[in-house]
Design the sequence.
């Protein structure tokens, strides 16, 4: 598998030259792989919507009412927002590529450029469909061109949609408790919105790492494994001293396994065993590794 070979070569190269710690490159590889899988999932979803839109176009000729395709407008909006979040992740990764060796950087840049072009094309198709249906364009920012996502690109910050916010809750503990209650009740979308709001309002809170972890877990429970991997990675990168790091590693490994990426899953779980050998998560990692042989 090309990705596995690249990882092995990269780790040996970096260890020899001492440019950067191997786990940093592995983390970057994992993020790119997850983004590629998420993009593929979005393309498949859009293909299905294209078929539905074709059917709607025929019905429109017979005088279909706008209310009958209102849900399509919402679906378009969600797909565009997902595109925008992916674009922000690409810009962030591009910004950090300078820390890696030339060979590794060139390989990743090619993969990221292909992904970036695909995302831009998806966005343009969505806008086209929106115009064709006569819908008011949803307020999302168009993805930047590949040239604008280089080393000096400004990282785009994705914000949760205001429509998903179930109501304002004041106070640090109150907001966290409210979000966790929504999570426990199975209202994952509104829980995510409140957890995101919590992190934005209280970035230094002792519960900020927990909030990010629950956001990742909500995607995992919805079987959106690509997104879960990226969110667990935020726990690992933004809160390296958190007591959730071992759990984030474990669930990240599980997510890769669910996607059929056994090599990446083994890599993540073995890293967990090295860093947290005495943790409860290590026991689960050992069991999971047996099934990945």
Sequence:
């Amino acid at each position: 598998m090309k990705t596995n070979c690249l990882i092995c070569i990269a780790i040996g190269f970096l260890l020899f030259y001492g440019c950067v710690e191997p786990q940093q490159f592995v983390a970057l590889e994992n993020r790119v792989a997850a983004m590629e899988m998420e993009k593929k999932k979005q393309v498949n979803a859009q293909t299905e919507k294209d078929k539905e839109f074709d059917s709607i176009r025929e019905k429109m000729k017979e005088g279909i009412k706008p209310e009958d395709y209102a849900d399509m407008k919402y679906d378009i909006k969600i797909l565009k927002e997902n595109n925008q979040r992916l674009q922000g992740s690409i810009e962030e990764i591009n910004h950090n590529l300078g820390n890696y060796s030339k060979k590794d950087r060139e390989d990743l840049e090619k993969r990221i450029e292909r992904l970036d072009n695909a995302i831009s094309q998806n966005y343009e198709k969505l806008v086209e469909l929106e115009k064709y249906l006569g819908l008011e364009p949803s307020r999302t920012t168009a993805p930047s061109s590949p040239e604008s996502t280089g080393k000096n690109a400004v990282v785009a910050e994705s914000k949760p949609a205001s429509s998903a916010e179930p109501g304002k809750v004041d106070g640090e503990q109150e907001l966290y408790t409210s979000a966790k209650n929504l999570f426990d009740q199975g209202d994952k979308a509104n829980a995510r919105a409140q957890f995101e709001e919590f992190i934005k309002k209280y970035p230094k809170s002792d519960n900020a790492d927990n909030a990010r972890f629950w956001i990742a877990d909500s995607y995992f429970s919805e079987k959106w494994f690509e997104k879960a991997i990226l969110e667990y990675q935020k726990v690992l990168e933004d809160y390296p001293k958190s007591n959730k790091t071992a759990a984030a590693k474990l669930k990240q490994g599980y997510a890769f396994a669910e996607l059929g990426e056994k090599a990446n899953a083994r890599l993540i779980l073995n890293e967990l065993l090295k860093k947290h050998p005495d943790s409860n998560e290590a026991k689960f990692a050992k069991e999971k590794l047996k099934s990945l042989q």
Observations:
- The radius of gyration is 21 Å.
